[in-house]
Amino acid sequence: MLMVIKLLLQYILDPDGAPQNLTAVNKTSTSILVTWDEVPNDRRHGPILKYEVDYTSTASYVTNSKEVQAPTQYLEIDGLEQNTNYTITVMASTSKGYGPASEPIFVDTDQDSKYSFARPCIDASTGKVIFPVL
């Protein structure tokens, strides 16, 4: 009986857990790469269909959102302000709605220079170092 209740609950509730291990790396002076791990299995309550990445500039306090379809667990946010601090959170959604936001992380974009380069970052799913191509 308990197994039947658990099975039913996973399809009538939204997630009660947030994506884990959120990381962000500034790739350029106007872009940030955000990665995260899945919501723990026992907190999902059904298949995760999509994620919402919210990012807020601490200069303007304007929050923007971008949606990512599961199973993708990364997003490159571009068109950002140079030399600005951003607060970033991620939420996961099932067919019943979004769960809670992850713990916020903070990342700064760089100031432009006459030399253009992108910093290497780590792919959270494979652990491999990625060297961006400009």
How is this structure best described in words?
The structure is a single chain. Helix content is 6%, strand content 41%. With 134 residues, the protein is mainly β. The strands form three sheets. Strands 3, 4, 6, 7 and 8 form a five-stranded antiparallel sheet that branches. A three-stranded antiparallel sheet has the order 1-2-5, with no helix packed on it. A hairpin with a 2-residue loop joins strand 6 and strand 7. The longest helix is centred in the N-terminal third of the chain and has 8 residues, at 2-9. The chain starts with a helix and ends with a strand.
Brief characterization of the structure:
The chain contains 1 helix and 10 strands; from the N terminus they run H-E-E-E-E-E-E-E-E-E-E.
**Class inferred from helices and paired strands:** mainly beta
How helical, in percent, are the residues? under 10%
**What's the Cα radius of gyration?**
17 Å
Strand content: 35-45%
Biggest sheet descriptor: 5 strands, antiparallel
Order of helices and strands: HEEEEEEEEEE
Q: What gross morphology would you assign?
A: globular
> How many structural units, i.e. domains?
1
The total strand number stands at 10
Measured distance between first and last alpha carbons: 57 Å
Can you tell me the CATH class? Answer: Mainly Beta
Number of helices: 1
Kindly report the CATH topology: Immunoglobulin-like
State the CATH superfamily name. Immunoglobulins
The overall pLDDT, averaged over residues, is 82
CATH architecture designation: Sandwich
Q: Residue ranges: pLDDT <50 for 5 or more in a row? A: none
